[in-house]
């Protein structure tokens, strides 16, 4: 539930702080015992808690887009970050089988630029339409020097909270239905989504200099444009598959920590592992960037999504029909591997230094 | 719905940006037509929208604590800001008659200090217990130089979203029940709550120097301690009065913009005004600060709560029993005046330069 968008510099401290926060939060749950908004058991420590409102089950989650904001400041394009913001929160809900419905956002700025605010909010609107969520609240806070950023324009940090509903009669998805032999389906990402940007920026600045965003990448776009590539929003696909009656045993939104951490989190519920020989290739620019920074294969799979923004786990018998159903929607999917009984995540790394990678899954909580 | 915690430097630009944001948000409402989470009409442009979930009516709102964080950094006390954060969001819900039930928060930091995070989250826990809300989600984002602040410690900005329920059979409170002759009740605040701190800091720095927070105020506390005074949380009182069966015609949470702006917002629904000869006196330290900065009476009532954190509007026949009911709870209340038919808010200012103040209410939307 409480996560940390770490810079990658001190994951342990980030996890420690998140645990402290969760410990205090957990002790507020009894305020709602037997009342509307009572947190239901079962998703403890996951992304979203499900609350009961007299039989209506809802979940609330919050997140921000981290330092991807700097890329928008560098490129001067502000109307795509909404896709990153919406994706970060609605896809965390979708990973628990919850259909996102409403969203509220907070924009912290140093000082206001109406044109930039307008572009940001247009992007939020566009993304909300894709995700089928209504933006029902918002706040713009002028915080002066408490908000910093790149260049001379308006600087900002942006976060949101999303409210979702667990459809009547449907179970939440928490990984407890997963078993050895289940099939893993990878959903293609479009780029870095909204995680791992501290490393992206560090490598690009070291290799291409302080104005790295204006340097050309090989496909004709600038590196700034490449890095800014907006996130795909997966939640409508998850809802669609559930509406079609498919039983998703597990759904993992690949954010900070990559496949090893984020998929590992749902694998540990039943003490399982996975063999993933067939994830999507990372995007060419990810490989290129990995090469520029001479980053070990093991590290990049732990920090970036490497081309796979969400993993679905289904019964092997459902693999073909689910792939077919996904194909019809236009999302790109791949049979990536299977669930194993051992607590290890094995990945055939397809980055700049291809290698078989083996991650010992974190112990059960 | 979309507000702006302005520095007071350019209210017009803040309002313009909020209007832009609301315009885009409004156009996402149709994504939920006939579906769970459909925004209901009636609170357009107010703090919270009410959404329908098959007869269960919920509202979601978000806000942050602005630059009050700097006061905690200066004083080195972090376990009271939770009261400010919770108050900002739950009392916006309460102002619409919505009972807050759940909360999620985002803490943006430059770098992590586990001790500070622990103190912040303890305060959030303590405040959540007072407000009867369960903290069901949270995120800590490490944003490096995108977050600034005072001194050498961890710098941070903190915001939250709160989910509330409109009890079955009860109307939302939007000011439409208010009529001339209704009684206005003021609820005493404890200090600046979480608004107007740009001006607080500006005056103190100009008069007492860069280490103003260590200077003694006349009651023995430092100016830093005075400024950090945590917010009272009013939502349990509003719920209590509604549970007792009292009909609240209007509720106004006095935040940025003070009584003229925030009370004006609900007065304009029916094109009304108010005569408020008997608001609580501002706190002595507010008057002292006003004197230090030689701030005009008219200005401080528009930027600070001046001792009154919430206003309630009731039928004149309910005035005495409501005051009695409030008295029993320990909250401090005062009969402050009455609703008038003219679009003017008249206040007997009791600050450092007492004067009768007259504010023309903003026109109907």
Question: Any descriptors?
Answer:
homodimer, 365 residues, 60s Ribosomal Protein L30, Chain: A, Phosphoribosyl-aminoimidazole Synthetase, Chain A, domain 2, six-stranded mixed beta sheet
General description of the model:
With 365 residues, the first copy, chain A, is an alpha+beta fold. The first copy, chain A, folds into two domains: 34-166, PurM-like, N-terminal domain (60s Ribosomal Protein L30, Chain: A, 2-Layer Sandwich); 183-360, PurM-like C-terminal domain (Phosphoribosyl-aminoimidazole Synthetase, Chain A, domain 2, Alpha-Beta Complex), CATH 3.90.650. Helix content of chain A is 33%, strand content 26%. Chain A has helices at 11-26, 68-75, 81-94, 114-131, 197-208, 223-228, 235-243, 258-267, 284-292, 297-303, 319-329; strands at residues 2-5, 38-39, 49-53, 56-64, 99-109, 134-142, 156-166, 183-188, 248-253, 273-276, 308-314, 333-340, 344-349, 355-360. Chain A has a seven-stranded mixed beta sheet, with helices on both faces. In chain A, a hairpin with a 2-residue loop joins strand 3 and strand 4. In chain A, helix 3 packs parallel to helix 4. Chains A and B meet through strand 1, helix 1, strand 2, strand 3 and strand 4 of A and strand 1, helix 1, strand 2, strand 3 and strand 4 of B.
């Amino acid at each position: 539930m409480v996560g940390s968008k770490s810079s990658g510099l001190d994951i342990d401290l980030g996890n420690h702080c998140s645990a402290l926060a969760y410990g205090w939060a957990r002790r507020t749950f009894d305020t709602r015992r037997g009342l509307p908004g009572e947190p239901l058991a079962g998703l403890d420590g996951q992304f979203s808690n499900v609350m009961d409102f007299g039989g209506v089950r809802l979940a609330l989650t919050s997140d921000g887009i981290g330092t991807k904001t700097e890329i928008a400041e560098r490129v001067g394009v502000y109307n795509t970050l909404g896709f990153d913001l919406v994706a970060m929160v609605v896809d965390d809900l979708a990973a628990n089988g919850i259909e996102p419905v409403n969203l509220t956002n907070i924009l912290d700025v140093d000082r206001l630029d109406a044109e930039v605010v307008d572009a940001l909010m247009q992007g939020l609107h566009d993304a909300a339409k894709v995700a089928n969520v209504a933006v029902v609240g918002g706040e713009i806070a002028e915080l002066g020097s408490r908000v910093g950023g790149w260049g001379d324009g308006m600087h900002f940090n942006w976060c949101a909270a999303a409210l979702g509903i667990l459809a009547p009669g449907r179970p939440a998805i928490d990984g407890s239905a997963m078993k050895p032999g289940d099939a893993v389906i990878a959903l293609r990402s479009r780029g870095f989504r909204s995680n791992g940007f501290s490393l992206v920026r560090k490598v690009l600045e070291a290799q291409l200099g302080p104005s790295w965003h204006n340097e050309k990448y090989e496909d004709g776009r600038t590196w700034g444009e490449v890095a800014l590539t907006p996130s795909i929003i997966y939640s409508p696909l998850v809802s669609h598959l559930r509406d079609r009656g498919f039983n998703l045993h597990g759904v993992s939104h690949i954010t900070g920590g990559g496949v090893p951490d984020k998929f590992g989190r749902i694998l540990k519920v039943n003490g399982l592992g996975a063999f993933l020989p067939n994830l999507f290739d990372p995007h060419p620019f990810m490989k290129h960037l990995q090469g520029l920074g001479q980053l070990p294969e093991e590290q990049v799979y732990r920090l970036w999504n490497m081309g796979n923004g969400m993993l679905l786990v289904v019964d092997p018998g459902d693999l073909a029909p689910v792939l077919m159903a996904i194909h019809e929607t236009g999302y790109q999917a791949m049979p990536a591997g299977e669930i194993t009984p051992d607590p290890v995540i094995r990945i055939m790394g397809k980055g700049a230094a291809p290698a078989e990678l083996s991650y010992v899954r974190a112990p059960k909580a």
